[in-house]
Amino acid sequence: MSKLLTTRRAVIKGLASSAALTLAGCSMNEPPTYGNVLRMGDWLTYNAHRLLLPRQSLAREYDLRDISAAPAIGTTDPSDPSQTGFVAEYAEDYARFLHDGFADWRLTVEGSVAKPSSFSLDDLKRMRSRTQITRHTCEEGWSAIMQWTGVPLRAVLEAAGIQSDARFVQFHCYDAFVDGIDMLDALHPQTILAYGMNGRELPVAHGAPLRVRVETQLGYKSMKFLRGLVVTSEFDDNGPYGMIQNGYSWYAGI
Amino acid sequence: MSRSATLHRHALWVRVCHWVLALSVFALAYSGFYVLMAHPRLYWGEVGNDLTPAWFELPLDGGHRPEIWQQTVTFDALANKPISASRTMEIFNENGWARSLHFLAGWFFVAAGALYFALGVVTKHVSRDLLPRRLERAGAYSLLQRCAYTGVAFVMLPFMVLAGLAMSPRVVAAFPVLLDVFGGYQSARTLHFIGFGMLSAFVVGHVAMTVATGFRRHMRAMILGR
Fold this sequence. Notes:
The complex is a heterodimer of chains A (about 250) and B (about 230).
Chain A: H1 3-22, H2 37-52, E1 70-72, H3 88-99, E2 106-111, E3 117-120, H4 121-126, E4 130-137, E5 143-152, H5 153-160, E6 168-173, E7 178-182, H6 183-186, E8 192-197, E9 200-201, E10 211-213, E11 226-232
Chain B: H1 3-7, H2 12-37, E1 41-42, E2 56-57, E3 69-74, E4 83-87, H3 95-122, H4 125-130, H5 143-165, H6 169-174, H7 177-182, H8 185-212, H9 215-223
Antiparallel strand pairs in B: 1-2, 3-4
Helix pairs in contact in B: 2-3, 5-8
């Protein structure tokens, strides 16, 4: 990070304390208000979308002929020490899974669920599946159209039993990132955990063996290299590994 | 009273809206520049990325450099078919705070713009002073001014908001017609950029005219209302 940016962040944080005072009436546990001036716009956008837009409208789906070239960015292999998302502990596990075709890989589902569970790739493939051709819209400004096949997140959550206090789903990944979505997006019919891309197994660079697809938000919410889900009743910015710490908005439906 | 004094008696709401809008537009342009710099390539249609040809590429760093891409997966054996590739280096990306600032400014812009439009209609400021028509009284805005102000306030700025909304995944899920109107996500992005260029030209012209015809007088009129 540049020195300029650090200074700017300090200024923003300073301004933030005054904003936090004015916002003190609002619950600070609601996303995405982390007491920061810039976040007030994100907060307005999130609440305006939830208040004004139809709750479960579907993102546009495309034809096979619309499928395009697809860049893979960020972490493209969590077992590669030269990459930003490298964490030795995860990398060792990931390298092992990669070696035997993800046979031992499991997705854990914990938190506000009736029965904390873990699912193998085969378990997930046996559940109902959904295939959709959608546009991936990167926050950088580029876009690509890919076909995704996976299990609706809703089906996985229901298999573990959603409890009445469940409000957010957090995604924990092998490239160490953590991020979450609210239940409205989690239960959206197009929010799937994808194990297939363009008719093949999900490639490593695109998040094998399992990645999220959140079609109503920007690309960075579609986390790759899933390790586990945690259903929470309270908002969590996920500390140093949370996407928010990069300066990214928690809500990216923009 | 001179003619110019009659002309420049801006109502308080006009002055407040003018400066909130001016600051918002400045913040939108500033943050928009940073958002664009993460990927300074423009396309038409729904899809555009570093692996597809650009319609226009800004001659800046961060542009298309094939050597930063490493082919990882071929999902179609035929030549010249789409591939997937991994980026091997980090690009310039100050997008996080820039996007948040863009939308914070956007909210101020929409609020002040809506207030301006509503009061402009109610007080007949729009129909009397802005809509293009033949001059009726001394000191009124000229036809050229009326065309410029009307074009910017009621055509360009709403167009920019709509093109911006057409880039929102959540908004176009609710209103897919936006994608059809603009011809796709990347077209909307390109048109948003062209609109930025046109509005910048207006701002330059607007400020230049203010300077040319009495900067202090105009500033006093738009700040103090006299």
